[in-house]
Every structure is written in structure tokens, then in C-alpha cells.
Amino acid sequence: PVLRLLEAQLQDQRREHEEEMEALKNQMDLMQEDLEKQQQAFLQTLHLSPEVQVEFGLQQEITRLTNENLDLKELLEKLEKNEKKLKKQLKIYMKKVQDFEASQTMVPVERRPHERSMQVAVQRKEKDFQGMLEYYKEDEPLLIRNLIT
User: Among 20, 58, 102, 135, which is 20 to 30 Å from 77 by CA?
Assistant: First the structure.
């Protein structure tokens, strides 16, 4: 159930990413059209005097660079926002996986048939060795998992 949920959420993210890529492709197509228009305007300015050509060219370049900078800032903001969202989701998923793994270690031994033999082996070893194991309560799920493996 948890894996299916994570898989569904991953597919949702993939779909969002594909939609974002499509939007970026459309934006690139619009920029290509704008470039073609600018090239046509540039060809028209070739018929003007040299001073007017330079001034017009500089104006066009300043306008183009300004628009490009604004587009890039907007794209950067979107990507940073998406990165923050993905990092937050990753933390949530990692917590869910850790909780799931911890809950698996808490399942009683009787419900896990392949681990009964491990318990028997541990009991036999306890007869050979006497002593105590000291550990922190927080480390119990990790200790149980390591004992099982």
C-alpha cells in the first residue's frame, strides 16, 4: 500500500514534469518566432542610414536582452519553487519509508515464518554465551532489523 502510494505520487510528479517541459517547449517556440521577427526588422533597417541603423540595432538589442532577462528570472523562480516543493516531498517520503520500515520491525515474530528459525538460532546461541546487551530504546527497531538479517 505505501509503495503503491509512493509510485502514484511519483507518476504524478512525472506528469507535472512533462507538462512543465511542454510549456517550456512552447515558450522556446515563441522565442524563436520573436527572433525571426527581429531578423526581419533588422533586414529592413539595412536600407536606413548608418547612424539610424546603429541606434535602431542598439534599441532592439536592449529590448531583446531585457525581455530575455525577465523570462529567465521567471523561469528561475519557477524552478526554485519546484525544487523546494520536491525537497519537501522527498523529506515526507523518506519519513514515510522510515516509518514503514520501523512498523515492519514491530510485527510480532509469529507473523513472520522465515524468521522463527532465526529466533531459534538466537536462543541456541544464548545457551552458549551468557551476558547482556545494552542499547538505547530509540535503536531498538534498528537492532531488531540487524538481528533478523
Answer: 58
